[in-house]
Amino acid sequence: MYKRILLKLSGESLMGSKQYGIDEVRLAEYAQQIKEVAELGVQIGIVIGGGNIFRGLTGAGKGFDRVKGDQMGMLATTINALALSSALTSIGQKARVLTAVNMFPIGEQYSKWKAIEVMEKGEIAILAGGTGCPYFTTDTGSALRGIEIEADVMLKGTRVDGIYTADPEKDPTATKFDKITYDEIYHKGLKVMDLTATTLCRDNKLPIIVFNMDKNGNLLKVMKGDGIGTLVYEG
């Protein structure tokens, strides 16, 4: 059992059955799964994307200034963080939003020590705003935060049940890896996370488990070592 985890959630997954924004049913399911793991005594930090609301890189392709576009994306992650925080507190799980840039009173400004203090009190630390800098994805933000808070593992919750030889939503012949090294990801050109995030995890020996967060109960199964998902490790 891991003592402290960094959970990376996809903004797009929060859309659920909707075309945009936040699906309240999916949000509630996520909150319940997270609470179940917190009740085991696991300390949890969460980074959530903002792609269900705005993605800076997409905005740049449509004429937005890249820096401003990424800043809009940071605000989108904060909206999602507030929504998740609200969903958690509504079911009796304390949570606090920490932001990469100063957004008081929306959230407290992030620091490693504040996040650890929050987790050690049994609260969920929701780390919003990415890295606080443009040109970095929330995958990189989650890798950075996972290393900073000294997490035992980064759990990357996605819409698929692990890493495949190709996109299983597009290629029915794609096969799943039970485990794979960082170097194999490079050499095979697999798009698990952006290369900056993968390199950060490799260089700081932070293992990653990629799994399907959209299936209820999967987060608890990962924590119990049921062998779902794909483990990324240093070979």
Shape: globular
User: Averaging pLDDT over every residue, what do you get?
Assistant: 94
The class by helix and strand makeup works out as alpha/beta
- N- to C-terminal separation? 21 Å
Instruction: Give the topology string: H per helix, E per strand.
Output: EHEHHEEHEHEEEEHHEHE
Helix content: 25-40%
Can you list the strand order of the major beta sheet? 4-3-5-2-1-6-10-11-9
Rg (CA only): 17 Å
Portion in beta strands: 15-25%
Task: Note the topology.
Layout: E1 4-9, H1 24-38, E2 43-48, H2 56-61, H3 66-90, E3 95-99, E4 108-109, H4 112-120, E5 124-128, H5 138-148, E6 153-158, E7 163-164, E8 176-177, E9 179-181, H6 182-188, H7 195-203, E10 208-212, H8 218-223, E11 230-233
Parallel strand pairs: 1-2, 1-6, 2-5, 3-4, 3-5, 6-10, 9-11
Antiparallel strand pairs: 7-8, 10-11
Architecture overview:
This protein is α/β, with parallel strands linked by helices and 235 residues long. It contains eight helices and eleven strands. The protein has helices at 24-38, 56-61, 66-90, 112-120, 138-148, 182-188, 195-203, 218-223, and strands at residues 4-9, 43-48, 95-99, 108-109, 124-128, 153-158, 163-164, 176-177, 179-181, 208-212, 230-233. A nine-stranded mixed beta sheet has the order 4-3-5-2-1-6-10-11-9, with helices on both faces. A two-stranded antiparallel ribbon has the order 7-8. α5 (138-148) packs parallel to α7. The mean pLDDT is 94.
